[in-house]
Design a protein that fits this description.
about 160 residues, mainly alpha, Arc Repressor Mutant, subunit A, 2 domains, two-stranded antiparallel sheet, 6 helices
């Protein structure tokens, strides 16, 4: 779910340009299609843009002169800024703790199988962020060493 600042920025862009399309939000805000479409849906529920009309852009129902009032309304609808929620450490997460205990038990039972399974690791991708914890990771296999010896066969130029 986009935060209030992102929604207000999207509202400002749509109202000032008088053009409400996901592709415009994607390009100007550098967000994905799902986020851009979700922002437009939120702007629709706020009465800033109309419903989707096929593949074209949505009708913008607010004029640039009304922008300050619209942004104030969005800010008021969002309520007070939430206080910083305490972060839960991974060790306090019961699911991660259970997974760690299971991995330790497997290591004790069959070290070779556990080592083979541990060679494939998960590394964060560039798009990983705190609000998408758990997503944004990809499985990376261990590096493969090149063959010990390779013979290149030269082709005949007459072929």
């Amino acid at each position: 779910m986009p935060d209030v600042d992102t929604l207000m920025r999207a509202a400002e862009l749509v109202v000032t340009s008088q053009f409400g399309s996901p592709s415009m939000l994607q390009r100007t805000m550098r967000v994905g299609y799902a986020t851009a479409a979700q922002l437009l849906d939120l702007l629709e529920t706020s009465g800033i843009v109309g419903p989707p009309a096929g593949a074209g852009p949505r009708d913008v129902l607010v004029t640039p002169a009304e922008l300050d009032g619209v942004l104030a309304g969005l800010r008021a609808a969002a309520g007070p800024a939430p206080s910083a929620a305490p972060r839960v450490s991974p060790s306090a997460d019961p699911h991660r703790a259970a997974a760690a205990r299971a991995a330790a038990a497997e290591q004790r039972a069959d070290p070779a199988a556990a080592a083979a399974r541990a060679e494939v690791t998960c590394t964060p991708t560039a798009s990983a962020s705190a609000d998408h914890a758990g997503r944004g990771t990809r499985r990376v296999p261990p590096p493969v060493s090149p063959p010990a010896h390779r013979v290149d066969v030269q082709r005949s130029p007459h072929r």
